[in-house]
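Example with several molecule types.
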Amino acid sequence: MMIFIWAFIIGGLICVIGQIMFDVFKLTPAHTLTALVVAGAVVSGLGWYEPLVNFAGAGATVPITSFGNSLVHGAMAEAQVHGLIGVITGMFEVTSSGISAAIVFGVIGAILFKPKG
Amino acid sequence: MADKKKKNLPPEAQKYQAFQQQREIKRPVIKNCLKAFLVGGIICCIGQAISTFYITFFDFTEKTAGNPTTATLIFLTMLVTGFGFYDHIAQFAGAGTAVPVTGFGNAVIASAIEHRTEGFILGVGTNMLKLAGPVIVYGVFSAFIVALIKTILLQWGGL
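Resulting structure tokens for the full complex:
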């Protein structure tokens, strides 16, 4: 049960960081999301993302920062087996679900729904 | 606006800009942050509920449950976007709906639905990743750099 509370708090805080980037630094959503993904990749490289996931569960895996984290994870897992070449080949190993789900459901959505005015 | 840019403008435009800045509505930063915190937290709790479901009823561990959870959340986003509710929630929550993976899903799905009148190849296909593109591009690029540095350090740095 504790994990729900931590998921709420950590997930909420990451969203607040995004909101501050919107409002205080006047960044566009695209800039904000890009910055958060890059931040996720860097934090993951430093090895700090994994403990956060263990601690906050979905609070750390649902925000877009986890996209950068899983890209680095996939690349590192493959790099341990194949060396430097693995960095390229393993990149999408862990992240594939988010991108493929977005594309698949995007096409299904476009078939099912009509644009609203 | 940066001062450098301002100097190149004619005086009338500078005057206008000062006027416009004065009249600009101040954004209620703290209120927006609270809304973002609340809605973002709720979305993450829904995510946690979904991954708990996958861990309990299917063969997923806490580490692997993230992937099906992401896919499920994007599926839910498709329904909410398709029925036209996502915009209303996003209007209220700001970054609270943009930062979780649902925002990424919404960016892809909304542009797919919006451009279907232009045809499925040139409309849906080309425009789908327009908004989500930068996230993927710079996510991959930065992950590449980070993983490269880390691999080099691990292999030759003896870390």
